[in-house]
Amino acid sequence: MTRVLLCVVAALFVRHRAVAAQQPARAPHDTTRAARDTARVDSTAKRLATVVVTGTRLTDVDERIPSQVESMDLQHVSQGPDAAFRSLQQLPGVTLYDDQGTRLQPELEVRGFQISPIVGTPQGVSVFLDGVRVNEPDAQEVNFDLLPMGAIDHSELVRGSQALFGRNSLGGALLFFTQRGTPTPSAGIQLSTGSFGERVGTITAGGVSHGIDAFAMGSASDEDGWRQATPARTRQLFVTIGRRSTAGGADTSDIALSVLYAHDRVREAGSLPDSWLAVNPRLNYTPGDFFDPDLIHVALRGFRGAWGGTLRGTLSFRRNDIEQFNVNVPPPSTDAFIDNKSLGATGEWTRPFLLGALPTALTVGAEYARQNVRFRLTNTGGGEPDSVATLAVVHEDDAAAYSQAVLDITPRLSATAALRLDYVRIPFRDELNAANDGTNTYDRLSPFLGLTWKASDALRGFVAYKSAFRAPAPLELACASPVAPCSLPSALGADPALAPVTTHDYEAGFDLDLPNNTSFDIDGFWTVVDNDIVFAAPNLTQVYFVNIPKSRRAGVEISAHTALPAGGRLFGSYSYVASTYQSTVQIATADTNPVPARPGDQIPSSPRHRGRVGVGMTRTIGPLAFDAQLDLRAYSSQFLRGDEANRHAPVPGYAVSGFNLNAQYQRYTIQLEIDNLFDRRYETFGAIAENSLGPPPGQAAPNAGGDAGALANFFTPGLPRRIVLSVGAKF
Asked: I need a surface site. Which of 40, 80, 258, 700 has the fewest CB within 10 A?
């Protein structure tokens, strides 16, 4: 591993684009990013005109890999810190729900696995920015509001367990790739204004001079928030400088340095007891909660030819200082300071060769990351002097080696085999009490096997067995005792070791592309999860984590698209996702009469049915170009967090509509976006907890559920109608 990483650092490589001249043009949904092999490869490689080097750990993923891969639509959402998750919720099987009560910190579910900015939510999806993992070291959470969405060129969701992408890739991997400067210099500006005091401004510029390409993006947003005491502010600056070498019209080497700085301040409202929700959904149960991250992200990436193949790699540094303040009822409140630092490198080498007479592409690689986390938790308020409850550090080592081979058995049939070995070491050091010190180590070998059959240029099918691995996050390990639960956001100590999560995923599907811009995709999956880590909350302000011996995610995802006359289009999707316990287990909740979850019980916060249907139209009238789209998203009911046995009434299902209109005249654009077009009232999340504050301010208790100290159902109200108007120009 050391030799590979030294080669990467010395040569500064990343990203290979090699594909044979004789490959057919890709279908509109194909995400292949490739170019012809250059004349610099050796004579053996020159004879392999039909070898296709498919997606690897550091490249885009193409249709020859036996997985469902979908590009995110960033054109029908307004630019801003919410663009990533708003695009994701348009994809089949992706659900958005809101625990924190703020528009910029939603939680998403992909195939029953969470991807969330909330510290404490077990994470099951990995996220990468130009090949660099952006899951935070402390709890593997993902802060979508820190992604430079104004600089994103394209993004992809790779569904299902993914061995090559490493830890947390249980439900999939989300890949973001940023823009580079182009030979034609350009600049752009977009300004937005909308409901609830929303204001967003983004400026971009890029070009090439003397062989050096550069791209820069600056973005700022402010909003008042639609609920009480929920303003939010974001600031971002992103710059990339690079140099490419070309021969014969193809890139032969590349080096690029990217720097991202982001600082946000987001105030949170949380959920409301049902008695409060009935009075006014805009109320804030505990005003004063806030999230304040400060991020620096530096990445060096490049690629070049080496040893008859292509060597590519990344070298990265991330530092994210976070303050999270929680107003707890009853007090004391907690003020957490989390300092996340990551230094990592990834290197891989890909070479085409002949295995007998069969064209084969082999990739071998390794990655290493040193992740340092420092926790400081202060108890404040409640009539007592402030006191430090937690002062701890973690110096985590993550190492992995992986390989992948893609074998063209016939021109139509390809086989993919991959293997990844992970090693994770997590030493916990308590600076207040050395008796709490401990070290946990984990290792896992994860295989991937699959077949891809391209029956014709229009029809592709695949079948695969996959496996993935997730080591417990430092915060989960330090908060795993049911007899000593942690105060929110975290009060850490010496707790029992958690087992790593592993998945066994069986998947099959096909994609059909027909004339008239018509497509149909269907994918079925059956994922068995061993030692799933779940969130247990014995009350509203304390939590701990526990392993579940067996759980399962199984379902089907269907999507279709067709063109209509006069520039119209019709699209739709449906997914069925059954997230269920497969073991009898008692999970602590606020319920005073708890009942164990049994095999077949639905995991909370996971609707079984999700669907989307919409129509759109694109027309050109002289110099004007218009695009309009109307869609309807619907979700079935979901059980409340804390109701693992499915005994209580669930969060009701709901449906919301959205409308988007784009108009372009030469270099000027206007966009109108409306969410929740008909201003429906609905809830996206629910939990069972004690209502410590009783009835809403100025209100008498309407029923027993509104009495102080009584058990209540807490809900997070969905966003009301939101209108955003954007104007932009490119120069």
From this structure: 700
For 209, residues 6+ apart whose C-beta sits below 8 A from its C-beta are none
- Write out pLDDT tens, residues 461-485: 999 999 999 999 988 887 776 766 6
Residue 474: strand, helix, or coil: helix
- Tokens standing for residue 416: 């993919």
The tens digit of pLDDT for each residue in 483-538 reads 666 665 444 554 567 899 999 999 999 999 998 889 999 999 999 999 999 888 77
Using a 10 angstrom Cβ sphere, with 0-12 exposed, 13-18 middle and 19 or more buried, the burial of residue 725 is middle
Of 177, 157, 117, nearest in space to 108 by CA: 117
- Which of 427, 426, 431 shows the shortest CA–CA distance to 390? 431
How big is the chain, counted in residues?
Answer: 731
Task: At 330, list the tokens.
Answer: 């009853």
Residue ranges per structural domain of the chain? 2-730
CA-based nearest residue to 297, from 256, 329, 342, 338:
342
**Cβ(353)–Cβ(48) below 8 Å:** yes
Q: Name the one residue in this structure whose structure tokens are 């939603």.
A: 106
Task: Please say whether the beta carbons of 327 and 287 come within 8 A.
Answer: yes
Task: Choose among 361, 33, 366: nearest CA to 175.
Answer: 33
Q: Cα(89)–Cα(292) distance, rounded to whole angstroms?
A: 25
Chain centroid offset of residue 318 CA: 17
Beta carbons of 107 and 85 less than 8 angstroms apart: no
CATH number of 2-730: 2.40.170.20
Q: How many CA atoms lie within 13 A of 693 on its CB side?
A: 21
47: left (phi over 0), alpha (psi -120 to 50) or beta: alpha
Angle ∠(618,620,626) on CA atoms, nearest 5: 50
Instruction: Give the whole-angstrom CA distance, residue 653 versus residue 657.
Output: 14
Predicted model pTM? 0.90
